[in-house]
Design brief:
Two copies of one chain form a homodimer. Chain A is built from 19 helices and 18 strands. The first copy, chain A, has about 550 residues and is of the alpha+beta class. Chains A and B meet through strand 9, strand 11, helix 13, strand 16 and strand 18 of A and strand 9, strand 11, helix 13, strand 16 and strand 18 of B.
Amino acid sequence: MNRYSNKNLSSGFWKWGDPAKAFHLNDFPRFKSFLEEKWKRKLNDDFKAPDITQLIPESTFSENDFSKTFPNLKQEQFSNSKESRILYGFGKSCHDIIRIFSGKIPPLPDFVLFPESEDEVEHILQNASKNKIRLIPFSGGSNVTGAFELNEKNVSCVVNLQRMKRMVAIDETSHTATFETGIFGPELEKILNAKGFTLGHFPQSFEYSALGGWLATRSGGQESGQYGKIEDMVLGIRAITPNGIIDTKDFPKHASGIDTFRLFIGSEGTLGIITQAKLRIHKLQSEQKWIVALFKTFDEGAEAVRCLLQQGIHPGILRLSDPLETKLFSTMRNSESGGLKKLIGALIKSRLASKGFNEPCILMTRFSIRNDSDFAMTKFTCRFFKSHNGFILPSSTAGNWEEHRFTLPYLRDTLIEHRVMIDTFETIAYWKNTSALYLNVKESLKKSAFYDKGGLLFCHLSHVYETGACLYFTMIAPMERSNEEAQWMNYKTLVTDAIIESGGAVSHHHGVGKDHQPWYLKTIDAGEKELLQAVKKHLDPNGIMNPGKLFDPEN
Amino acid sequence: MNRYSNKNLSSGFWKWGDPAKAFHLNDFPRFKSFLEEKWKRKLNDDFKAPDITQLIPESTFSENDFSKTFPNLKQEQFSNSKESRILYGFGKSCHDIIRIFSGKIPPLPDFVLFPESEDEVEHILQNASKNKIRLIPFSGGSNVTGAFELNEKNVSCVVNLQRMKRMVAIDETSHTATFETGIFGPELEKILNAKGFTLGHFPQSFEYSALGGWLATRSGGQESGQYGKIEDMVLGIRAITPNGIIDTKDFPKHASGIDTFRLFIGSEGTLGIITQAKLRIHKLQSEQKWIVALFKTFDEGAEAVRCLLQQGIHPGILRLSDPLETKLFSTMRNSESGGLKKLIGALIKSRLASKGFNEPCILMTRFSIRNDSDFAMTKFTCRFFKSHNGFILPSSTAGNWEEHRFTLPYLRDTLIEHRVMIDTFETIAYWKNTSALYLNVKESLKKSAFYDKGGLLFCHLSHVYETGACLYFTMIAPMERSNEEAQWMNYKTLVTDAIIESGGAVSHHHGVGKDHQPWYLKTIDAGEKELLQAVKKHLDPNGIMNPGKLFDPEN
């Protein structure tokens, strides 16, 4: 199944996921009212994407060029149609969408290829290298970082891996499985689940992202506390480069020299195409338990999280929202009749206020219950939160988040149609820096008209470690008509500057892409940059692999 | 403190550790009797190392050469004495010792330098590169793989890092600490312990190995179940190469491109010198609990271990001995009066035998008790072992191992003086392969006279993961007079061939060195080898860094 088969240009190609699952801002009436009251205006969905087919030139790479350049491929593995070039030429970022809406279309690829085997990938890379055709590896296409962005030079081609989606091997004794990298999250899990296993990688993009992209961008899933990030799951890869194949021998662990394959993790397509990966898998867990608590301040909640982690307790999922996110989270609940909502309402209005929880922060933690020890962990966590001044809420409070864990990108789309700018910024810092980073990022937007115009910035802490935590900010602001890209760029710059100055990473799990490259280049030292360039020079002597990204200067 | 300051050539420079802590085979009378009865001869300590100062040439690198080549260094940072060249020219392997004893001295370094700062390391690398002087980085010197071995060509120099042993920074909030890499295990732990922390890295060599070597060889400690291997502990490094400094920005985790520093982990000195490392640290744990059980067969014990791990239970220490190791382990207990010994004796002779535990395998697991959940884990583990046909022994049974956890290398030395060959072979394999690998290794020595001459081969499983386990074999055999090296080489080759053919890694935690290089070269593919050579060419264009190791062909 091509997960984009239900998409075409007229049904909103730029939107997230499955049109049948999309919803409208009106489906969240309390949230909509909240924004309208704050901004003192009605929100209308009158911002529409133009027909961008009219705005882009025809491909410079003909069917004839294709036949001559890639003789081993079949005709139906090639497309230079405007539709393909558009569908596979954009990521899913706010920046992408704003440019589509304002008709400022960046250079798009000239054609798309659909290899079905490693031999075909090799054929593509070798012939593209000979002909200096730039290649953009593409698996799910869900990036929000400008990962595919091109400059105007030379011919360029998207290598769409979605036909390479087999499970190549499974070892049920050793708990490993090898997959081709064009496989999407749900298909991968379906295959594993049928055998009683899970990979445990559930990024918010899960339904529309694929293994290759996860590996190339160092993706992190919502259950990283239990299963780790993708780089913790991978035991080995096979990668095809313009200079040949890298096929490293894998072991559970080893002391047999350098882990060469790690060069490809986070390489964002600059070195070659990862075609297969061997991954750690786990027995499916059926029983889960949520422990949910409120804290009086974000700092107090974060401190409880840090101390819990440093006690050796690692919830599978952990998410601490700041006061504003907690408040908005409650407006996202629609059911007026839910016992839960009533309960929370009652608590907030009476007991909590009297206890000083005026602007509480919600902390949700989820544990897999595999044995008594896991169960004892939940009991301990409950007591631990109480002893850190947390107020325990019913487990069911987490139900709303769990229900919507993969659907929030749909909300983004309807907000944009209502001329509401929404974007996310994520980073990771050592615990020593998280509190100041949080404040600095909030403060940074004061250098713009963001708050004056009613902009909202909120944050949650997730993907936590003994040494630090990922801070995930969401920004919502009224769009400035006809100035959307500059407005976005201004906010993005202020926030990212503040992140980097506060000791945060360019990204914890989204990656670098074109959007973060200026800051990435500030943070890597000269020696590292030259070393990576030497690695690229060796693997990709003609510089055709996703050029101009990461350490690779525009050429 | 120079941990070799209590050593000189006359006190047995080739021996392990502190002469004051060394012991004699007579200190283990039951073990000695066991060997004597098996081999039907008395064991005498009449095998002595010759004075090898008589066997080696004077250095070709004079004080004058030193002053001209390394003008920034002080005179006392240089030595070309035979004593220094010998002390810092050997590792601690069986192969090293056998060659010393038989007077077959491999090429030794021409001189030793003792840098005290990163600037001095840079000075050394740049001037050595200009002058094509080969450099061997040296921190603890405890390697058992021929890691320092040289061929005859060119001048060579040991860069001894033992004066670079500061803690550079500690972050008690984020649980990280940065150390210079010449620091030995006990000093590092002492500094951290004083602040309530531990690194948690306790290889058997702990007392006489240092951080730099741990990183360069991918070391693994006995508590890897709780703290991971060294590569899991390291957040970032600073490395100096002949082509400049690699100083990567570190984060708890990130999605900001390629983890370049990982190239240095396991690089065994071939790319540069790691001068600093930032490490994850942990609160000191005071309470520990052992769960000890016997299993009827090694396979049954291994299966219980695998299933336990795959349940998400990770003991801090885990060690499953095969029947022969279990038996020898019991002969190592000296106390006749111990209640324990009596108990085990009684158990073995009556109840156990009646239950089919004729040649039992001992499984020792240790847990840190930080909270109720950890305690519940020990209860669960106990029940789990019983349900897997394990027979639970008192926790105190593990006391003997714990007492001797760092002292077994001393036993090696006294055995060799008794003309007993003793060496260890370690590997890791996926669970699917561990059982066959164990049998194949035992079988492999049948191709030699090993068993006919009374050789003993035993094994334990340790450093276990959800996906696989490290198998650690010990071989004990009577030495063939005047044929020691060939005898050793024969056994080593048979065993390592069997390991590789059975899907095992060249090493789980000892590293590659010269001894394992032939097998390492068989297991890496051409693309990987060329890529690593390109990396080396960039960082070390004159090929001076520990040349002829890993992927680097002899030059």
